[in-house]
UniProtKB/TrEMBL annotation:
This is (2Fe-2S)-binding protein. Residues 1-77 form the 2Fe-2S ferredoxin-type domain. The lineage of its organism: Bacteria, Pseudomonadati, Bacteroidota, Cytophagia, Cytophagales. Keywords: 2Fe-2S, Iron, Iron-sulfur, Metal-binding, Oxidoreductase.
Amino acid sequence: MAITLTINRKKVSLDIDSNTPLLWALRDHVGLLGTKFGCGIAQCGACTVWVNGEPMRSCVLPISAVGNAQITTIEGLDPAGKHPIQAAWDELDVAQCGYCQAGQIMTAAALLKKNPHPSKQEVVDGMAGNICRCGTYHRIQEAVLLASKKAKK
């Protein structure tokens, strides 16, 4: 089936089964490898992308459900990698293995878009659905708070 998606502000036409999860359309057919496969059951957050500005788990989302949506991946958040959350991530050296970071960053950026100046508990709650195998939760939380502080200036 031919379907046209808008990914990172660009129209992309794909000829794949409409039940294909968005994750695999992005990785295997579009070549955007930043979004990761973690668990395959929407529990870990590694596959988080934005659909119409909302964080969604792409591993269980069929492309048939996103045909008219604006999809943003980690590659499209800021092509230069200068989004405030990305800058804070780098400044605090958050990543260890880095596998979860694209999903963590997309979730954190969505959190800050909705709540530009969250409390520490709001960050903890807002990031709770993303798992980090390395356990860098403290640094993740600090990066979100740092990005929030920098946005105040």
